[in-house]
Amino acid sequence: AQLVESGGGLVQPGGSLRLSCAAFGFTFSNYVMSWYRQAPGKERELVARITNTGDSNIYVDSVKGRFTISGDNSKNMVYLQMNSLKPEDTAVYYCNRRPYDLWGQGTQVTVSS
C-alpha cells in the first residue's frame, strides 16, 4: 500500500492550490483519510479529515472556511482544495490513512509574496 501526494508549490498570499493524494494498493473509501501538515520547527498537525461516508469531515480551526477535503472513489484519490492561502499555511503537507497508519512522502506548500 502507498500514498503519493502532489500539487504543492509556491503561491502568493490569497492564492489557491489543490493537493492530490493517490492511494495505491487499497481502497481509500474503506479508511479514514486525512491531511496533516508540518511547518519548520513545529509539530505535525491535523488539517482535515474525511470519513468513509464523507458526511462528518473535520477541519482544524485555522483552515475552516478556506480548505475543503474531498474524495473521488472512481480515481481512488483524496484532495485538499486550499483557498485564501496565508503565509502561516506554509508547510509540508502529508496524506494519511487510518487505521493501519500509512503516510505519503509529503508535498511542500509555500505561501509567500
Question: What can you tell me about this protein's structure?
Answer:
There is one protein chain. Strand 5 (45-50) and strand 6 (58-59) form a beta hairpin. The protein has no helices and 11 strands. The protein is globular, with a radius of gyration of 13 Å. The protein has 113 residues and is mostly beta strands. The protein has strands at 2-6, 9-11, 17-24, 32-38, 45-50, 58-59, 67-72, 77-82, 91-98, 102-103, 107-111. The model has no long low-confidence stretch (mean pLDDT 94). Strands 2, 4, 5, 6, 9, 10 and 11 form a 7-stranded mixed beta sheet that branches. A 4-stranded antiparallel beta sheet has the order 1-3-8-7, with no helix packed on it.
Individual helix count: 0
Class of secondary structure makeup = mainly beta
Helix content: under 10%
Mean pLDDT: 94
Largest sheet report: 7 strands, mixed
Q: State the end-to-end CA separation.
A: 38 Å
Helix/strand order, N-terminal first: EEEEEEEEEEE
> What would the principal axes of the Cα set say about the shape?
globular
Radius of gyration over all CA atoms, rounded: 13 Å
Low-confidence stretches: none
Number of strands: 11
* Share of β-strand residues: over 45%
